[in-house]
């Protein structure tokens, strides 16, 4: 997939809409999409929909600066909002070079109806994470408020050909007219396929079916199961057990909504399904402390890694932080190790109290565009970013022509991840830190069953 060119205030844009877009029905759209989008991205979408006009032309684009003024926002916030809209399949972005520079086309896409959104494996999981089980149940009931159970009734609906009789004499003319009309129509995008190369779905099926879960229902819910694994790093055994809990053994029915709740309630990620195997990263040029950080990042799932950092800082994981990790895990191609390095960089190296969504999304998007594939790659990018930032700051503070030595990133590990040091004065602290991380890894490994014998 090609990366979008950077947005600047001098860039130009045109707003168009897919053939199926009929507008945004706010009574049904806002309750389901606002928790997923956030206020900033929702504001951008509503602004784009307001500016949609018939017959859009590439030759008459508007400047991005006008949109920034209208929204009273900055270019970074607009970029992050567009990333969310694209990830939620509400906007498709195209670009073209012209005499004015890069011209972007923001094509609005029809939102899913409430029932479709709740049935979508990715969006429903994210919505449940955002609003919690109680509100999710309320939205599910709201989506069915005008429905009536007709399973015990007899359907007597007439078919198309029982009512209409096509005129065969005009078939040739009709075919030409249909082909012409369909040329401008675009097929609806298929749901995003979740990538989880470290999850053996066949082995999961074997375990789940042995517990009485119907195989056909699991195959239909494959995307949902892979999404839950990707987010929580749960292995085949754990998800098979939760699938069994979500199955009504009396009717042999697998309940996807119950499965989502079971996974959210468990929320106990194991230690052994990292997306990049420890020891395979190229650690050339990294110090001993940074190598230890890379190994640790590759061993601990993102939610658990964040929890340990927050506890060490005397805090706790907030719902907003968990939502941020959820979105990064689903929308980015960064490995778990790279996500953990991003968390370490913001909370430890930058000494931020919390994981801020806008900044985390911006850095993750940049790293992905630079081809970051592992925890070691992510750490090098963090070092470069910090070096460049401090060099620019030092240059502004020094007279012109004066040489300033390029600063280096602080090679600082959280206390719970530090190795013991030989200095006698810090022996007690170092021993405690070593013991804490060893206990953590031992606990995590003990929680993971010995699978695939």
Automatic annotation (TrEMBL):
Compositional bias ranges of the Low complexity kind: 423-432
Residue stretches making up the DnaB/C C-terminal domain: 307-379
Residues of the signal peptide: none
Pfam families: DnaB_2, WHD_DnaB
Boundaries of every Replicative helicase loading/DNA remodeling protein DnaB N-terminal winged helix domain copy: 19-250
InterPro entries recorded: DnaB/C_C, WHD_DnaB
Lineage top rank: taxon: Bacteria
Positions of region (Disordered): 264-284, 391-432
Family in the record: Belongs to the DnaB/DnaD family.
Protein name: Replication initiation and membrane attachment protein DnaB
Source organism of this protein record: Limosilactobacillus ingluviei
